[in-house]
Amino acid sequence: xxxxPATASNTTPLTPDICVIGGGAAxxxxxxxxxxxxxxxxxxxxxxxxxxxxxxxxxALIAASTRARLLQDAGHFGIAAxxxxxxxxxxxAHIAGVVAALAPNETAERLAALGVTVINGEAxxxxxxxxxxxxxxxxxxxxxxxxxxxxxxxxxxxxxxTPVLTVASVLTLNRRPERLIVxxxxxxxxxxxxxxxRLCSSVTIVGSEDLLADEDPEAVMLIRRALLRDGxxxxxxxxxxxxxxxxxxxxxxxxxxxxxxxxxxxxxxxxVTSNRQPAIAALDLELAGIASDAGGIVVxxxxxxxxxxxxxxxxxxxxxxxxxxxxxxASHQASLVLRNILFRLPVKTDAAALPRVTSCEPELASIGxxxxxxxxxxxxxxxxxWPYAESDKAQAERQTEGFVKLITDGKGRVLGATIIGAKAGxxxxxxxxxxxxxxxxxxxxxxVLPSSTFSELSKRAALSVxxxxxxxxxxxxxxxxxxxxx
Length: 486
Known about the structure:
The protein is an alpha/beta fold. It contains 14 helices and 24 strands. The strands form seven sheets. A five-stranded parallel β-sheet has the order 3-2-1-7-19. A five-stranded antiparallel β-sheet has the order 20-21-24-23-22. The chain has a four-stranded parallel β-sheet with strand order 11-10-9-15, covered by helices on one side. Strand 12 (about 240-245) and strand 13 (about 250-255) form a beta hairpin. Helix 1 runs parallel beside helix 7 (about 325-345), helix 2 packs across helix 3 and helix 2 packs across helix 5. It is globular, with a radius of gyration of 26 Å. It starts with 17 loop residues before the first strand and ends with a helix.
């Protein structure tokens, strides 16, 4: 089955093998992969293919801010750099260029060439076996809901009447925000706050939770210290009373201390990076016998809904709180579902096997169980670690803040890894493999890695599994005995 928005406008019912609802990262991944296997696919998207560009925009903004920081730090290497001259219009042009460069991969024409029929419109279930899009009826063998999630503004008095920024609206700004208030202490809030500060904005972070509450507290402490050292104001566990807009500015009013009843925070712009909600309101799920809750569509470990013909992946599926905005998590789920649909192979999702990265400085990456979770799940665990300061590469780059922390069970099987420091998002890759394949930390310790690289940090941490052996009396006696033989 092939087609395009132009050829899919008649009223003939479509009967594809797979109907994908949602043209974001997960939906596109599943639709294109299925089409390459020769499977007939219909893709329904109500807005634009590719979904939101938040991740692309954020990465491009962070890249620009990183260059600004490199210029500021050049003096540490004996290189004289002048005063920072930041042109925010050109920064926006850089971001727009990155978005435009990736756009051709997400067009209806490309999908049609692969054999995917694209239909623009709002999808609604009519019954357990049928989806209606305008006057078009789709009766597929399998349906995959991949509608993702949308930002959900917190319930704060006055916020609904206040102009707010999102990641996407950064591209629409006429000039750099002078005083930016970032609402949200999660990864997105931390990343954007640090990036905008390095691009010469005054920044304040406000959140009702601890900073990066789901991450390793020891690693988060280094990030908290870095933000405060940079000059970013931080208000964690704050009680936000209301939002005001005096004289076209923004005022966030927090509950104060004993001496002050209220604490007002003044800003020129308010950036909201808080909760997200599943985009499922228009689907009429109940007509298809599909259960949902506040977190999204209820699925089992195989991502199947209460209607066995229908799967849900990505941010629209319940239980994806921590990975709702992660494209790699949604794309991984898409591959699992496709494996089940095409080959009937049993699949099971494991949230612990999904890596997480916060692209700030120092960078934070983690996978698997945290130290606290491991202590709750097992009695016999080991914590292995190695500091960045012991790396000659880190010393040469003047990036010595951070560490690699590994969590293993008593037999050495890798349960989790946390890396805080330079290149952490790249260094987490071998630990993703270790957890996926159930490897022992001694397997990682035996790897030969290039010297004078950041990757050596992971091997050093793994090698520390042998440290207790050096102090064992039996081992020392064995060495002394063998020494007698020359």
